[in-house]
Amino acid sequence: MEVLRPPLIRIGGRVYRKKHNREQPHQHEEEEDSYAGPEDCADEPCDAFVVEETERGYQCAVDIPSPLYKYIIGKKGETKKKIETETRTSIIIPKPGVEGEIVITGQHRNGIISARTRIDVLVESFRKKQPFTHFLSFALNQLAIQEKFLQFKEEVLEKCSNDYGVSSSLFQNPAKLHLTIGTLVLLNEQEIQKAQELLQRCKEDFIDSIAGGKPLTVEVAGVEYMNDDPAMMDVLYAKVHMKDGSNKLQLIADRLTDRFVNSGLMMKEWDRVKLHATVMNTIFRKDPSAEEQSNRSAGKFFKERESFDGRNILKLFENFCFGEVQLNSVYLSQRFSTDSSGYYATSGQLNFS
Questions:
Q1: Of the four, 59, 169, 274, 350, which is 20 to 30 A from 34 by CA?
Q2: Which residues, 6+ apart, have CB-to-CB distance to 16 below 8 Å?
Q3: Does residue 257 contact residue 273 with C-beta atoms inside 8 Å?
Q4: In whole angstroms, what is the distance from residue 218 CA to residue 241 CA?
Q5: Cα separation of 139 and 325, whole Å?
Q6: What whole-number distance in Å separates Cα of residue 63 and Cα of residue 208?
Q7: Helix, coil or strand: residue 36
Q8: What is the largest CA-CA distance in the chain?
Q9: pLDDT by residue (tens digit) across 130-152?
């Protein structure tokens, strides 16, 4: 490692400088709830924490959603004790289920910074393992699109039902047709509020200038598949593009993703957002209310899927037109939810006009 130019690590919108190892690594930290060890952590953030000086030393408070407390505490409290011992600090954590600040106190400022950094790294590690709770989306459930989708479903079942794995259970709920921009793990009301506020700032910062204060006219036409073998499909999706041939839709999706990733609210999974409207998905076989898995959480589930032969569907419906739609909103949608229209319940909304 280059000592004078150490690598930088981005965690939750902060940038950390990874220091050279000064301790021998622990060889037997195998339990999921165990602490990674100081040698795995960046000991000092490039943008300093707010560390307050008190009559008894120093302290630092950090907001962490209550579902993540258990990972800081660890099995039988071992993780918390380990951090406290190695950084010579005391860590006060609210009771389980009670939202509040975790307070780190100690005699030495460096110890406070080290403990806080280790907690941040630990929380980020386990946050990545949480299933997503919300997602940014464009709704495609206008009545005309739903009607064309139902026509597509009827014709596919009429002409391709004898193909391996093809059945009515594979099709999306027409009221929930959408484009996913990106997935989020929002674990308490404070994080939902933060996402809502960021969405509105995005409107002011760049969306108004891109969309020009008008809805985007989008054409939904043609189908494509996700994996390599059309005879063993898991996801079939409808393609979308701007009616005027511009890249406004892609630009808005990419800029939103970049902004949310930089804020720490979203994980970056792709260089560009792949705008697609899922019309058939093998995860619907077991759970018709399921949404698309994010890339980081889909691996195990993919192994349990029963794929279908989509070669005839591609041949017969390659250019099927689902129609045009006026996109006027970006939704902060709640996973596993339904509103009065049949679409996902929303926690926030950004309107173009």
A1: 59
A2: 8, 9, 10, 42, 44, 45, 46, 117, 121
A3: yes
A4: 6
A5: 9
A6: 32
A7: coil
A8: 78
A9: 999 999 999 999 999 999 999 99
